## 1
Amino acid sequence: MTTIVPPRERWLVGRILVGPTAGITVRRSLFFLMLFLAVIGPWIETIGQWIPIPVYDPLRPDPFNPVSPPSAEHWFGTDTLGLDIFTRVIVATRVDFTLALIGVTLGGGLGCLAGAWASYRRGWVDVVALRIVEVVQSFPVLLLGIALFAALGPLEIFGPVDNGMAVLVIAISMVNFPLYLRQVRSVLLPLTEAEFVQAAKCAGLGAWGIVWHHFIPNARGQILALFPLTCAYAIQIIAGLSFIGLGIEPPNPEWGSMIKTGATLIVQGHWWVSVFPGAFIVLSVYSLTGFSARSETLVGPGGTSA
Amino acid sequence: MTERTILEVRNLSKTYRVRRSIGLVETIEAAQRVSFAVERGRTLGIVGESGSGKSTVARCLLGLTPLTEGEVLLEGTQLGDLGVRKMRSHRRMMQMVFQMPQASFDPTHTVRSSVAQPLRRLRPDMSKSEQVERLRHVLTAVSLGEELWDRKPRALSGGQLQRAAIARALAPDPELVVLDEPTSSLDLSVRGDILSLLQELQEEFHVAFVFISHDLEAVRVCAHEVIVMYLGQIVEQGTAEQVFGSPSHPYTQALMAASRFETDSFELGPKGETDPSSGCRLMPRCPLAEAACSAEQDLVPSGTDGRTVRCWKVVASG
Amino acid sequence: MNAGPANGALLTLSGVEVTINTLSGPVHPLQGVDLEVFPGETVGLVGESGCGKSMTLRSILRLMPPGGAITGGAVEWQDRSVLDLDTDELQTYRGSDVAMIYQNPVTALDPMLSVERQIVDAFKANREVLDGAPEEFAREALRDLEFGNPDAILKRYPHQLSGGMAQRVNIALALACGPSLILADEPTTGLDMTTQVRVLDLLEQQVSARNAALLFISHDLRAVARVARNIGIMYAGRVVEFGPRERILTEPSHPYARALLDCVDLRAGERPRSIPGLVPRMTEVYQFCAFRDRCAYRMAVCDEEPLPVHDLGGRRRLLCHLGPDHD
């Protein structure tokens, strides 16, 4: 008896980085570059002392140098306060990535559990879950954000520097909860009557045991495929809300609020203030999509077999 | 109820409510006053077409679906009276093997972890090393090659998976295993394997089987006692030699003929659209039916050998 | 040996090979299938799952799974090569020359359309000139398949039919096109024993009443024996023995055919028999006999020489070193 094991990179890094196509490999490399920037963000000034890249304090204005175009000293130029855009774009990576990750994990995690529970229990549990989903999804995303800010105000959960971050996380969770609930439910609904679920009941598993040991693993591929896409979506939401003045406020570095700063300057020809943070949003979204395609081949049912 | 009786079912009934359209709810009697007993280390065969209620009975036994009426007694204890926790401790006594081997294993778990699951859950009294020992014992008993233990289900053939399913059922050391069509989705070339394996395991583990199948030949090989079901009712009940050796109920005769692909001798009419509300349920299909059949039929002893039949014509002719 | 229009065969497969490229490497489900079907005859193919029965039917229709291709041999329909048909010709061939009946009768029907719509559409699509209303043909078609009240059945949707009823509707659909050959892929496997025989008999009756040919595959030798006059035994992508029903059922020559026959008959009081070992996984092209690992009659020559083809006349053919006349 022979079985053929599909060729696969030996090292985990290789398995994660190298995709089925060159385009996906590029996107994944780009993602890890962004992740690296997000990690080094707070120490960028210190790092700048050792390497010949012009970085500055992201919050210290330079009143003598406002709205200067890209140059050797300021690679991406400066904004109205004379803040260095290159430095700020990099520092903002951390804010946007972290908030997106927390929000999606929180809302998505709850959505997965709720979806698995609803598809296991069916009946009224399922009906209630679906009604909640419909109510949440009937609000446009921005409207939901505005309503949350109006109702909650700037929660200061993350301490005095909170700056609306907690509300952003809640907004992203609320948007993601129904997405994951629906996805997980649609995958698992046909499994409710599956014989292995009945076998698990015979083995003495309770409802949560079945949801945890059988339902969640069976939806894993779908969840993992959805995760990068929803993270990309969350980054757009954060930037969008900050752009309309909710969430992270200037002068704190955040891509959406930076675009807003430059929005009025574009007509005067000062394009760099908005374009660079905008480009970073596009790049981050693009890099994240590198993981959605076939991410089930990483850890799908067959991924660890053979 | 004797000393040797492990499972006794008394007047088990199950009705499903099906919503046909708004306001129109139909009740379907999937099992109607079914009674039987299984002795330690013996095999009871349940045969019938689809819709005869044989799988419903199995699901009721295992507590996978609540029964509408009647009693299921396991070693003299009534299952319905048990609370959830007590029920779980009784789960150990009764296990099940399903029809579709591929569907009865979680594709994300290895064979070993699936087989170990009932052990971990139902045998908290065993130490970790005893559990590992037991796992090795059952997997070896079903002669599943050790190289397959850590594979995912899709790497195994249907026959191999069904062996693993039998190992899983035997793992917590049950008194009774319900086999729901264990050979029906397998090739005929492995059917014999599974059947002889079951016979060997019964010897070794001294376990009782409830063997449910539409394959009469398979049941004939394995079963000691047999019940034949039609539309939720038992129509004939007796030992395997009685029922298969000289089938007396017209339905049993027809099943026997069909299972050998010879219907020319005795053929039933087409399966009915609606069931008769009273009288013999087989009447619309039965070639021997006459007016008197529309009276309610009871399951009564026929002859002196202890078998029971639900057909007045058979009983009258002795 | 290459058949064709000369010997009057309707369908001729000669040395058909199929390769499927999967993520885990190539699989070779057919490794040289030889088969002839003559007008109006019933042929059955038997084998374990994975032996290539279904793939044989798919190669006849040129319906390959993703990554699959017919990589060798020839499929001929009367005097034309099926492999050379263009898209339009292929469509006519699939619709009106050859029709297919599938294993799962309920999913083979469109769940959104009534039985009437589906049968009427089949009549309209495949017969350009109809004298009379297609509804009348549909009713007649159902009556042929022994539906007591065709009018009620016509109004139903697939989920309102039992398995046996749905399969009879499928037979009606397949016959509606007036094909000369019907392919049936395990058409009764999911049905009750009592229904199985009935559907098999109806299928055979209707096919012979229309003078069509039937190619029937099943893993159950008993079902095949009920309908087919000639039976082929398939193993590892080849037809290892072919012959008239009586011969195959009473004294088959191939050890595999004998073993299959033994498995079918369970005798009370006797240890049930099975074939030891596993079906080959078809990940390689077998140079020698693929059954030799499971064969009770294995000889030295089996490991040394490729399978010989014994043509025994009277449609009998055998692929085995033992030859036709061993004990």
Note: The first helix of chain C runs from residue 53 to 61.
## 2
Amino acid sequence: MTPPIAPSDAPDLTFDPDQVARAARGWDEVHLELRGIADAMAGATTTGFTAPVRAAASRCGAAWSEVVREIAAAAEACADGVRASAARIIDADERIAATAGLLEARLRELR
Amino acid sequence: MTPLRPPSAMPPWSADPSRVADFGSEMLALSATLDDCGRFADGGARCPGWTGAAGAAYAARAARLGRRADALSATCREIANAVLAHATALTRLHARHAALCRRHDDLDRLVRATRLALPAAGSVAEMLLGALAAPAGPGALEGLLAAYEADRRAWVVDLDAACGQVRRALDRAPVGEAGSSADSADAALATMPTSGADPAEVATWWRRLSPAQRSALVVAAPAVIGNRDGLPARARSRANTVALDRDLAVLGAIPAALRTRAEAARYANARAAAAARTSIEEQARDARTGEPLVPQIYAYDPDAFDGDGAVAMAAGDLDTAADVVVTVPGFGTDAQSAAYQGERAIMLHRAMDHEDPHGGHAAMFWIGYDAPDNTPWDGHGLDAAGVVGEQMAVAGGDRLADLVDGLDAMRARPAHLTAIGHSYGSTTLGHALHDHRTGVDDVAFVGSPGVGGDVRTAADLEVPAGHVWVGADSRDPITRLGDTGEVGLGTLAGGGLGRNPAEDGFGAVRFRAETSNHRGGPLAEHSTYFDPGSESLANLARIATGHDDAVTIAGGVHDPAPDLGDVGDAVAREYDAEGRLLHGLTHPWELGGDIAAAGTDLLRGVTDLGGPVIDPEATRTPPSAPAGR
């Protein structure tokens, strides 16, 4: 794997692909967990409550299920976003390296 | 005279507190999962090795998401706690409802009786009326009616109040305000005694926390709170319920074909624990109220012991029960056995209620150590080899000692604590009570292959004299594995699991544990000690409830060796007409050098080792006194 790029005189951009990949996988896990628990909440039975409370319980379960699905989607977006960013950074790095190689062949020392 | 109005009928009862509690537990699991999301955003999601504009944007986005998840978790937890409190309130209201219904029916009958006719003086009807409504007389009945109506109104008001309170909580919008949920949990966790601390220290730490901190911890760190000895059983159970429900929801949502092997094992263990929970919910009742018991999940660690898993669950309230019994299972037990062990706990609890109808009992099964559960011929590993050695029992004894210390530490008032070790679990129990000087009020070994090599007599255990009990079915071949006098795996080959506690010289009280319910199969009698209706179960329940006088006693197993004199041949044997050995000593050297093979054969179910011990409980022809006695 590509080692972290951390030139001492240019701290603006560093990139550790392993670390970023781990974070992406972690967000995937979080997404799955949140989705699973949201589905369970949506299916939670409210029949144990007295009749006057049952409707409120149903609304509550549905609302929380919905909001947790939103968080799950955001976690998945994080995972996808991190992966896409990593791919672009690696791709750009490779393109720059290739360009630099081509350029080097055309450069001549003039002095 | 104006006829008395009949009492107002009670409104029908339509709630189910256990289902309400289930809903609250689902919400707690939701809160815990949100909390995990926040924790991940603040920890594992960080990428310090990624800087620059994109890295900074990612960090900001992850932090925002984490904060929102934390805040939502706090709100969700508050609602969940309100729902769980409502479930408790409903349980009390249900009990009051049942009592008021009974009063209504009695009063209704009385009023109807007064309407029929004024009973003649000295008539049976008058005597009945007097008996039912003493002090008799119209004034007294009116007073009873008025008191009933007042109590009924109070009940209706209380039900309305409880419902209104929970409805307000349920109506809260699912939004989170940046709060202190994670902070309060984190701050509390930071002060938690370190691993290995004395359970009493852990109990003190817990008592000093605020209710909000305790509640936050249950959600933020269910795996820690749920398995920490010294914490109250209710808190542990709530945390483990969160963890279990989350496993069921999260792992259940992953298609079976896509689960990793570890996830599949964890899910299977979760399902087994859930099955045990359901059994207890459906089958166990409080003897005093008739209400279903809420199972207490005292331990839940589905990944423990390389995926074998750990589960401990109780029928009854471990925090308050006057009599608490813990069963320690043996060979072949892992978390997958939870449902089976749960049935045993239910049977034991029921039997305890039968022996002592006042109730207040709790029966827990403890699958909390790495018991030998694979046989070499299964091709799943070799830890069955552990069953002829004590290593796993020694390690299990360490954990069991912590459990017992934890049960002691968490209680405001100590319970009458009984530990029951079955099969290899008796070896584990022997180690806990011997190696750690852990004390219990009563101990019972059933189907024991030996109670550990260092335990020479009952006095070596930290148990009051006369309170070491043993149950050994004379047809149970496993009970013959223990060293009896000079005969046994330990004395012959330096192996084995220690002394046979049923031997008369050991010093335990042997109770009757014979069964007439022969299921067939060479090891059938080894699994009958908790059977409903068995004398073993009844005796265990008597011991566990302190009814020692009612325990039916059996004779100990004799060690025949001292009776042999110096006769250099196998003696003290009796044969039947066909020349088959009925009983008697087989000399050590006749057992041959392959003791391990004999043990293995036993495990496979070959029961006849030649009967090296003499058991007066055996239903075969009892032995006559050996020559020279």
Note: The mean pLDDT of chain A is 87.
